[in-house]
């Protein structure tokens, strides 16, 4: 299996090597790590050189809007041929905390969508309380899209599936009252990706503890039960999807 979205940064983990080893022991052989600002861009590049199964995305998260976009582009340019650089991310819009900087968020998001186009990379998108803008803006582009930690409605899922987007499913689906279960139940396996968003959002039975890629197995298990599809098929299909989008 592949954990398609994790933040394996030094500030969250004392020993990333052990975390990756535990992932491997649990059947997760590759981890895609999403940067969220300029300093984590540098860090994920460094870490990818140290660890075999560590792949990375480069991008600026909507919570780090003051970072320098031209520096981001330089980093992307310098690493554009690195096979471990798999996507532009984590980018997007987040109106949960504030809408006041909406214009700036959209500007930074669009800038990075242009970079994805220019460097021919897929995008890993963070969308929180911003479905309409995300859907409208992405609709203007012809990009390969992973909507990470998808939490939208059935209607939104239908639009995304029609466009061929991938929906990332993480620990939230295992939470008792999560509505997303009912949406994911009917989404074709062809559009699903497994992810943890480590260190956040640990799935049951580890809810509340720091998350790590090894926990992908619980998400796979949950989807298997939810959909009534054999676990091996879930693992196989979602891994193939990840391989297809990220070329890993
Ligand atoms: Ni994330």
Describe what this molecule looks like in 3D.
- This protein has one domain: Metal-dependent hydrolases (TIM Barrel).
- The longest helix has 17 residues.
- β5, α5 and β6 form a beta-alpha-beta unit.
- By secondary structure, the protein is α/β, with parallel strands linked by helices.
- Helix content is 41%, strand content 17%.
- Strands 1-2-3-4-5-6-7-8 form an eight-stranded parallel sheet, with helices on both faces.
- It binds nickel (II) ion (NI).
- The site of nickel (II) ion (NI) has 6 residues, from loops.
Nutshell version of this structure?
It contains nine helices and eight strands. The chain has 248 residues and is an alpha/beta fold.
The CATH architecture can be named as Alpha-Beta Barrel
The CA-CA distance between the termini, in Å, is 12 Å
Range of helix content: 40-55%
Unreliable stretches, pLDDT < 50, 5 or more residues?
Answer: none
Largest sheet: 8 strands, parallel
Structural class: alpha/beta
Question: What fraction of the residues are assigned to beta strands by DSSP?
Answer: 15-25%
Instruction: Report the C-alpha radius of gyration, rounded.
Output: 17 Å
Query: At the first level of CATH, what is the class?
Result: Alpha Beta
Shape: globular
pLDDT averaged residue by residue: 97
CATH topology title:
TIM Barrel
- Order of strands in the sheet with most strands: 1-2-3-4-5-6-7-8
């Amino acid at each position: 299996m592949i954990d398609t979205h994790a933040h394996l940064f030094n500030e969250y983990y004392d020993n990333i090597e052990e975390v990756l080893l535990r992932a491997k022991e649990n059947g997760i052989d590759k981890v895609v790590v999403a940067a969220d600002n300029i300093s984590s861009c540098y860090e994920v590049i460094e870490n990818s050189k140290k660890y075999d199964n560590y792949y990375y995305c480069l991008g600026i998260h909507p919570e780090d809007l003051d970072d320098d976009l031209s520096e981001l582009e330089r980093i992307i340019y310098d690493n554009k041929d690195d096979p471990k650089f798999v996507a532009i991310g984590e980018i997007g819009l987040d109106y949960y905390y504030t809408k006041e900087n909406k214009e700036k968020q959209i500007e930074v998001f669009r800038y990075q969508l242009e970079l994805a186009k220019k460097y021919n990379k897929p995008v890993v998108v963070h969308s929180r309380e911003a479905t309409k803008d995300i859907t409208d803006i992405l609709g203007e582009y012809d990009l390969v899209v992973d909507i990470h930690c998808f939490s939208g409605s059935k209607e939104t899922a239908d639009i995304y599936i029609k466009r061929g987007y991938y929906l990332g499913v993480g620990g939230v689906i295992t939470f008792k009252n999560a509505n997303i279960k009912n949406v994911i139940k009917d989404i074709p396996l062809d559009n699903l990706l497994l992810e943890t968003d480590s260190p956040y959002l640990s799935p049951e039975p580890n809810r509340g503890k720091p998350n790590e890629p090894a926990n992908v197995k619980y998400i796979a298990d949950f989807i298997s039960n939810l959909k009534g599809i054999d676990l091996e098929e879930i693992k196989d299909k979602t891994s193939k999807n990840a391989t297809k989008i990220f070329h890993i």
